[in-house]
Design a protein that fits this description.
Chain lengths: 337, 337
DNA sequence: ACTGGCACTCCGTCTGCCAGAGTGCCAACA
DNA sequence: TGTTGGCACTCTGGCAGACGGAGTGCCAGT
């Protein structure tokens, strides 16, 4: 494609993103030194519109980018904008003093919302990407015990369980067996080893062991229990004018966490930044918004995904850079700590 | 105060709440059988306005209630509207199958948002209102351990901690001491007993014991770590027209959880329903909204508070009834389960 | 004490109008 | 052939003015 036409598209996208108003040929040549006259730009714009990259809200208005236009911009025109020093510094220090996993994720989401000025989302690390670190069995009453699963990413999963007739000695024995079978293993390995363990328990543990292991297997496999943390919702108030197309769908998607979790899940192929623009989103509730996401984790493993949701009219280069930077940093932090 | 004037005020409030439009004398006599003519009602309205219960947006418009008007309505005119059968049924069953405390609170907030059609908030049970059920110490690496505190309400608090040179045997011994000192005690009792324990540890435990107990005391005292669950945010989209006065402040308050936690905290005097209308709110961010809250807990103890936030123009009788019903039910559920 | 009537006020809406911004096209030009 | 200046055309957004409707306040009558 013609070099200058791309340049024009880039100019349109950047101008529109910052002004939120249709941009015309005159304003374009004034603000970017394209080296040609408005008339020439008009010809290019007509061509770009013909090809579907831009559109006019109505005859004799300026042009605005289409989803396709943003896509081209992101793919071929957007060099990631380097972060400001203040942002880099903020990212370097925002996790200092985090006391537990919850705290880490809450700080992360707040930071991400602040640097991107969008709604931010951070998924809890999956169980499957982490090792079992400890299994604890606590007696709650004569007939109930609490089962606690601690993973290497710091995530703690708990489940109460009816268990008639247990005493401290048998629980201790059971605990030892469970830990021996699981600690240091990935969740899938641990699940496999628990499945074999169930047949090799001493007779004294058989009764309580089976129920316990069943519950534990359920906890290990429960992808369903994926959770997320949300922040920066008030950033939506900047889009009060686009209430119906931006604010409402995003709020609804945030409430319906399942949709967002799926969407983020699909982005977890690598630690690269994934961008879904408007109609590219598989969920129609979000087809007037864009989602920018990235996996985060150690070099070996992706723990989960984080990202932001906002209007399609979004500063892609900056936002993508911020998402990537935050994802890398929190990934490193979690795999070290 | 004149009986009929109260009746007029009640009619104005109910009409305005359902129509969201200033209500005039003619419409009033048409929709409520007050037994008098519009002219008479006008006189009453003039008096009510004089006394500050209602106001007109501009000359020759209908009247709308003031905060003071709503307050009178709530105090003297609002009989709690009984819940519909469907709502009662929903409340009876929504907690069935909850697997842990998180789950209980999430279900609660969703239910409350659904029946009130407002933004709902549920505070996590305070540590101070619950007993310590178990303390666990888990070795994470050679120099780090994880401290876990489990309370009778099912809340789990965790904290990682640097602890050089520990081995499984000393940890087990420490664990036994910690549990002996705390289990079955309220958090304040437990804190007191831990404080004395720290001076009576065997020499072998002194080094690791002090650091551990210090952290544990911090966990027990951390009112700061009060958390909450939010739901029903998309209900705000019904107030798109009042974006600045309703949507924006509420979103901001939700992000600033501290403010809401304080506000709810002040409501936790008993299990009665507390209503704060508009300017009655001590936090200026929320002075154009109303907060309806109630403590929840066992007969003996208030665990925490739950409630809803919405525009001052709100159906107080229904909302108050729903909040009360949900609070009672979840309180009972948690003290039994 | 209540009511019907009446004059008055103010809002919201609709209309028509105008300036501004932007386009598309065409003819001229390098 | 690609670029440019010029020009006629179109559409929006804002503004002024007119008007109907809803509602009030007040007064005189019952």
């Amino acid at each position: 494609m013609d070099e200058r036409k791309l340049e024009v598209l880039r100019a349109i996208v950047t101008d529109y993103v910052s002004s939120q108003e249709p941009v015309g040929s005159r304003a374009l040549v004034e603000r970017h030194d394209l080296g040609v006259s408005p008339a020439t730009v008009r010809n290019d714009m007509a061509a770009l519109e013909e090809e579907g990259y831009i559109t006019q809200p109505h005859t004799s208005a300026g042009r605005i980018p289409t989803d396709k236009g943003y896509r081209l911009f992101v793919d071929r025109l957007g060099s990631l904008k380097p972060l400001s020093l203040a942002e880099q510094k903020a990212i370097q220090t925002f996790l200092a003093g985090a006391v537990d996993l919850d705290d880490v994720l809450h700080r992360t989401v707040r930071l991400l919302a602040q640097v991107t000025q969008q709604v931010a989302i951070v998924q809890y690390p999956t169980l499957s990407s982490s090792m079992v670190r400890h299994v604890e069995v606590v007696s709650l009453s004569t007939s109930r015990v609490l089962l606690i699963l601690i993973t290497s990413t710091g995530r703690i999963e708990q489940r109460a369980l009816e268990l008639a007739d247990h005493d401290e000695a048998t629980l201790a024995e059971l605990r030892a067996h469970l830990n021996a079978a699981t600690v240091g293993n990935s969740s899938s390995q641990a699940a496999a080893r628990l499945s074999t363990l169930v047949d090799h328990l001493p007779a004294s543990l058989e009764a309580i062991g089976q129920a316990t292991i069943a519950t534990l297997l359920e906890m290990l496999s429960s992808e369903a229990s994926r959770r997320m943390v949300v922040g920066g919702v008030p950033n939506l108030t900047r889009y009060g004018a686009e209430f119906e197309t931006t604010v409402k769908p995003v709020l609804e998607a945030l409430e319906e966490q399942v949709v967002l979790l799926k969407l983020l899940g699909e982005a977890t192929t690598a630690d690269a930044v994934t961008v879904r623009i408007g109609q590219e989103n598989p969920y129609k509730e979000l087809q007037s918004t864009s989602v920018i996401a990235s996996g985060y984790g150690s070099q070996i493993d992706i723990f989960a995904t984080l990202g932001v949701v906002g209007p399609t009219r979004m500063d892609y280069p900056s936002t993508m850079a911020s998402v990537r930077a935050v994802a890398r940093y929190v990934g490193r932090f979690l795999s070290e700590g």
